[in-house]
């Protein structure tokens, strides 16, 4: 399977570069979806378009047996690309800085590898929109696909994400919770505005932020068990307009990350306790929580399948434990709807610098893509052939 995938290198590079040059944000993947649909049609693969707005579901097999899904996300990020390459984004302010162009390409590569292989069962190709953002109802592409029964009847689901810090030809995976719960808190600390020369006639919300920030940054170190991973980060704080005016309020945006659902709720509670300090200083606060993605759980059984395939393809020395990360991923909705797991594929040129996700200079070694396509295809094929159960 790996040798067959390597023979697809030129076509995979062409597809990835086409997608990369025409990045589209979440639920706007019309051109990307059209390319996916045309490619599947050319391969003679049955498909359904318009799933979760701009998603596509392809089906290979006869349906008379086990059913496994392979998922890839398709959306880009609102980032201005800084790379000087022939396939640079042609859309100012939009870029595939998280590797979703390669995820989509590798799933198309898996389709090419599997389309003529006889088996009993179904391999479902899940091209998901909008992993990076949510719609007006606060729902991402993964949430929408689960709601629209895109995973109905699946016995298992697998996914892959690229890692620009790890060399091509290496993978990482672990069982259990590997990515975090994500919550965003929007808050206002409210006081009473006034003249900067007469602070005693005001209730300064910027002053209130001193003890509030101390309390926020003490949540993880003092209120959460040291054995539980957790993060509280104040990523945005805005207040005031000029030097001699005390503002009436300060706006905050906070991200909370956790692996344990009880800790998830504790963080939100402790953030509110910290904000309430404003009331002891003559002010007040407002707080709104936006519940984000749940923690991504990698099923131990599915991890075992992916690991066995990876070891056979790459050797045990190139298959590493990942450990938990506090990033988020909406594949978590799929791995909770069906037993599932995500594997992380190194895409760094061994002779080149590390590439950070969500960075304007993110890029990848395209010779890693046949590896990803083969890993996904072979693991799915072994499952429907009942080697992995």
Features:
389 residues; alpha/beta; Aminopeptidase; Alpha-Beta Plaits; 2 domains; 8-stranded mixed β-sheet; 4-stranded antiparallel β-sheet; 11 helices; 16 strands; 26% strand
Major beta sheet summary:
8 strands, mixed
Q: How many H/I helices?
A: 11
Mean pLDDT: 97
Residue share in helix: 25-40%
Strand content: 25-35%
The first-level CATH class name of the largest domain: Alpha Beta
Instruction: Provide the CATH topology of the largest domain.
Output: Aminopeptidase
Q: What's the arrangement of strands in the largest beta sheet?
A: 1-2-4-3-5-16-6-15
Order of helices and strands: HHHEEEHEHEEEEEHEEEHHEEHEHEH
Describe what you observe in this structure.
This protein has helices at residues 2-6, 9-21, 30-42, 100-114, 141-147, 205-222, 261-275, 277-280, 300-314, 331-337, 369-384, and strands at 46-51, 55-61, 67-73, 122-128, 156-167, 171-172, 176-179, 181-190, 194-195, 230-238, 245-246, 249-258, 284-291, 296-298, 319-320, 340-348. It has 389 residues and is α/β, with parallel strands linked by helices. It has two domains: 2-178 and 295-384, Aminopeptidase, CATH 3.40.630; 181-291, Alpha-Beta Plaits. The strands form four sheets. An eight-stranded mixed β-sheet has the order 1-2-4-3-5-16-6-15, sandwiched between helices. The chain has a four-stranded antiparallel β-sheet with strand order 10-12-8-13. A two-stranded antiparallel sheet has the order 7-14. A hairpin with a 3-residue loop joins strand 1 (46-51) and strand 2. It is elongated.
């Amino acid at each position: 399977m790996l040798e067959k995938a390597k023979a697809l290198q030129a076509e995979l590079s062409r597809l990835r570069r086409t997608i990369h040059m025409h990045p589209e944000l979440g639920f706007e993947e019309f051109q990307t979806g059209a390319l996916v649909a045309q490619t599947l049609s050319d391969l003679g693969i049955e498909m359904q378009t318009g799933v979760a707005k701009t998603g596509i579901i392809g089906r290979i097999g006869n349906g008379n047996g086990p059913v496994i899904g392979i998922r890839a996300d398709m959306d880009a990020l609102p980032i201005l690309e800084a790379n000087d390459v022939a396939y640079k984004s042609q859309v100012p302010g939009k870029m595939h800085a998280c590797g979703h162009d390669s995820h989509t390409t590798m799933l198309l590569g898996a389709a090419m590898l599997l389309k003529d292989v006889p088996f009993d069962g179904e391999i479902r190709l899940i091209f998901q929109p909008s992993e990076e953002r949510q719609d007006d109802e606060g729902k991402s592409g993964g949430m929408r696909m689960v709601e629209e029964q895109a995973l109905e009847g699946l016995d298992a689901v697998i996914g892959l994400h690229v890692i620009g810090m790890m060399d091509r030809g290496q993978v990482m995976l672990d069982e259990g919770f590997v990515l975090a719960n994500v919550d965003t808190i929007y808050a206002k600390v409210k006081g009473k505005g006034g003249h900067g020369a007469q602070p005693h006639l005001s209730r300064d919300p910027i002053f209130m932020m001193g003890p509030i920030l101390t309390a926020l940054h003490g949540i993880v170190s003092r209120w959460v068990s040291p054995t539980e991973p957790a993060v509280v980060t104040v990523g945005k704080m805005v207040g005031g307009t000029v030097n001699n005016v005390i503002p009436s309020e300060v706006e905050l945006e906070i991200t909370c990350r956790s692996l344990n659902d009880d800790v998830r709720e504790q963080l939100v509670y402790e953030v509110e306790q910290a904000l309430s300090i404003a009331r002891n200083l003559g002010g007040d606060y407002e707080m709104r929580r936006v519940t984000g993605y749940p923690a991504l759980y990698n099923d131990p059984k599915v991890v075992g399948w992916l690991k066995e395939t990876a070891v056979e393809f790459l050797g045990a020395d190139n298959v590493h434990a990942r450990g938990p990360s506090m990033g988020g991923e909406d594949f978590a909705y799929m791995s909770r709807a069906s037993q599932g797991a995500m594997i992380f594929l190194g895409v760094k040129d061994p002779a080149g610098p590390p590439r950070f996700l969500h960075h304007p200079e993110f890029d990848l070694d395209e010779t890693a893509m046949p590896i990803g396509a083969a890993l996904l295809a072979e693991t799915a094929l072994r499952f429907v052939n009942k080697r992995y159960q």
